[in-house]
Amino acid sequence: MSEDENNKLCMLQQQVAELTMMNEHLRKANEQLIARNMMLAEKLDIYYEVRARIEWLKELLRKHRELMAHADLRDDEELLAIIEAKLEGDNIPIPPEFGVKEVAELVGTTQNRIIELYKQKTIYHSVDKHLDFLRLMRALRMLKEHPNYSIETIAHDSGFNTVRTLNRKIQESLGITPGEFRYISNPK
Question: Residues in the chain with pLDDT < 50?
């Protein structure tokens, strides 16, 4: 082999080595691009899922606003039945701070509508008196059904601020103390 051919062969081998290195570099870059594209595809899926949820929430909010706008169109008896079902039937907690605002939100109407409804259509004449009555009934039921509960626990769980408030409400309603009621309710 001549020297000229030898030089050409060396140059070709050098070019093959350079092309091999470039090919390896391009393969690694391609792998990185594929990994990046996979990550972007996952992010895009998450983005579309979040957008779908946002649209669902917007629709839910629109329906809620529509219900609120038409809430005052219910007749009084229907609204009272809904209030009673939610407060008495669902056995939701009625904490001391629960009042007109929370009842209105619970049934999807205005506070003014609730106030007027109670004044005109109930024996309680106010939301607070009705809520106190429900708290009292829960406390009496708990005194009867759970003789091992402390009066403090019953006062708290039935929605009274203090044991003193519970004592006063039972005394006003029945003329006896919670302890006396418990004794009468659970004779041994």
Answer: none
